[in-house]
Amino acid sequence: MKYKLAMSATEVSAYMDEVFPQVRHLGFAVENLGPGEITVSMKIGNESLRPGGTVSGPTMFTLADCASYLIILAHIGKVALAVTTNLNINFLSKPGQKDLIATARLLKLGKRLAVCDIELRSRDEEQLVAHATATYSIPPRNDAPAASSA
Amino acid sequence: MKYKLAMSATEVSAYMDEVFPQVRHLGFAVENLGPGEITVSMKIGNESLRPGGTVSGPTMFTLADCASYLIILAHIGKVALAVTTNLNINFLSKPGQKDLIATARLLKLGKRLAVCDIELRSRDEEQLVAHATATYSIPPRNDAPAASSA
Amino acid sequence: MKYKLAMSATEVSAYMDEVFPQVRHLGFAVENLGPGEITVSMKIGNESLRPGGTVSGPTMFTLADCASYLIILAHIGKVALAVTTNLNINFLSKPGQKDLIATARLLKLGKRLAVCDIELRSRDEEQLVAHATATYSIPPRNDAPAASSA
Amino acid sequence: MKYKLAMSATEVSAYMDEVFPQVRHLGFAVENLGPGEITVSMKIGNESLRPGGTVSGPTMFTLADCASYLIILAHIGKVALAVTTNLNINFLSKPGQKDLIATARLLKLGKRLAVCDIELRSRDEEQLVAHATATYSIPPRNDAPAASSA
Questions:
Q1: Positions of chain A with pLDDT lower than 70, given as ranges
Q2: pLDDT in tens, B26-84
Q3: pLDDT value at position D147?
Q4: CB distance from D1 to chain B under 8 Å?
Q5: Which strands make up the sheet holding A130-137, listed edge to edge?
Q6: Is the CA virtual torsion B42, B15, B57, B68 positive or negative?
Q7: Which residue on chain D is closest to C18 by alpha carbon?
Q8: What residue of B is the nearest CA neighbor of D89?
Q9: Which of A79, B122, C91, D121 counts the most CB atoms within 10 A of its CB?
Q10: How near does any CA of chain C get to the CA of B113, in Å?
Q11: Predicted local distance difference test score (pLDDT) of residue C81
């Protein structure tokens, strides 16, 4: 197996609640976690809906960013703090009035940079609602000579 | 002058309050509007701050998306409804605990697609906090044969 | 099946040779074509190599652009002419001195826009060399009222 | 002045010829270099033209990548070797049958990452032909503890 987890789904969930209390009201939940891949769902409530009943772009961005942050964290552990440096998102179709499901997959996990792609779908639908690619800068580890900063 | 406004700053502001009531609590305001360029500010309050006192990535995404939506709207008028199809954002430096200022500029205003870039800075600072490029799909006008949809 | 082919692999290959004679010397070949997905390989020769023996970024861009153009063409037929409007590419690891293999997958095939993602690997390797996302504008069909242009 | 040059335009040109002999036949030339900004032109010849007489997407990618590589090099010096990690390009309008001019501007020059945007125009035209944003990874300096690699 290429990727090796450093945290369990339960640990990742608990950490998300601790450091991102603001996403709790968005109803994010870790549904599945395996080497190189995570599934995070978002309950659809009123706040994240635009007029017309669809999920807003910024809400989809938040879900994509959160899912990819968590998949990195799950592999490097919470000692390190990854920072989003780039996120590119394509909005593909109108989401339904259902929970939104993000599947984030590691494309690369380097010492300094990690790259993921993220697929967003309405629950139980095959059609993509959005697709994103994100890059995170990983700070030098504690035990390494902390010379550089992005 | 290459670009010609279809709405005034006041009209754009009023329309933003009407269709995006959810951004009102984020404290967005149109500060300046001219042909091809708009400046939108965001009041920094508690909700948009991450632990550590910095503005979150999703909040910056929201501001970038809003500013570029408004600059397109200001040129095509509110009859048409542009839809974000792509947004690419680079996070460059930590924003200060100050208002965030987005300057969106039209790179292209075609019949079917509009493209903008957006620079984000803390108020009165020269350094870029983030830079984004966004593409919007413009639906066929009412008076045109409405054959196609993206 | 969601996607339906309009051309065979042989037809796509012949068309590529006809309209892109300049890619012939790059040694591009359609290896596989199915609904929603194409595999295109590139022979590694001297011209596309950088000092150090790796394939250059522009060469990888060319392969990604070509593969995604061909998968769209294979579904809409050669009557229409898709135009690249956006391409976002992440370079992930050094390619080996082997053929480069691109797998392009349709994420969306709308009337006006098509979106693909493309994975690049060295032949027989699992590790990603690069990952791209591309958007193409599809011109109005001949039989439709040709009102709009991007 | 925020950015400080480490090389002159002449030194940058000479270095380009030395390490990228393959771009010489593309007719690239450094036209202007100042703190934070470079202008690179490309002679339009037969090879880079598509059927229909326009410059191909890959050729524009090559010019954008080259210009942004050179502006980083001009500031960090040739000791370090920056590597493209991400390039996002929007194609905006058909270029004329004229030289193509790229203006690359530093958006960020960090210890580990540099970000540029690049505007492409036909010579003496105001309209944008393409717009790109690129990120480069900067390897640890020789004098620093070379612990990390992207």
A1: 1, 22, 45-53, 141-150
A2: 788 999 999 999 999 998 865 666 656 678 898 899 999 999 999 999 999 987 789 99
A3: 40
A4: no
A5: A28-34, A37-42, A100-109, A113-122, A130-137, A83-91, B83-91, B130-137, B113-122, B100-109, B37-42, B28-34
A6: negative
A7: D51
A8: B133
A9: C91
A10: 6
A11: 81
Band of the pLDDT at C56, cuts 50, 70, 90?
confident
Dig out the tokens for B89 from the structure.
């954002």
* pLDDT for the residue numbered B146: 38
DSSP H or E segment with residue B74? helix B57-76
pTM listed for this prediction: 0.91
Closest CA to A60 of A83, A40, A33: A40
Query: How far is A68 from A134, CA to CA, in rounded Å?
Result: 7
Neighbour count for residue A7 (Cβ, 10 Å): 18
> What is the spatial distance between Cα A39 and Cα A17, in angstroms, rounded to a whole number?
16
More confident residue, C134 or B97: C134
Nearest CA in chain D to C51: D19
Residue B8 and residue B116: Cα distance in Å, rounded?
A: 19
Quote the CA–CA distance of D86 and C88 in Å, as a whole number: 7
Nearest by CB to B57, from A22, A47, A84: name it. A84
Q: Which of D119, C149, B76, C132 is nearest to A90 (CA)?
A: C132
Q: How far apart are the first and last CA of chain A?
A: 30
Q: How many CB atoms lie within 10 A of CB D48?
A: 21
Residue C24, both tokens:
């012939």
SS3 for B22-72, per residue?
HHHCCCEEEEEEECCEEEEEECCCCCCECCCCCECHHHHHHHHHHHHHHHH
Q: What is the predicted pLDDT for the residue at C52?
A: 60
Which domains are seen in chain A, by residue range? 9-137 (3.10.129.10)
List beta partners, residue C39: C32, C103
- In angstroms, the CA D90 to CA B144 distance is 27
Structure token pair of residue B34: 């001219």
Rounded Cα gap, residues B112 and C83, in angstroms: 13
**pLDDT lower than 70: segments of chain D:** 1, 22, 45-53, 141-150
Strands C37-42 and D37-42: unpaired
B144 touches C at CB < 8 Å: yes
Give the E-state strand segments of chain C in sequence order. Answer: 28-34, 37-42, 83-91, 100-109, 113-122, 130-137
Q: How far apart are CA D58 and CA A11, in angstroms?
A: 45
d(Cα C80, Cα C84) in Å, to the nearest integer?
13
**Which two tokens mark A100?**
């939104």
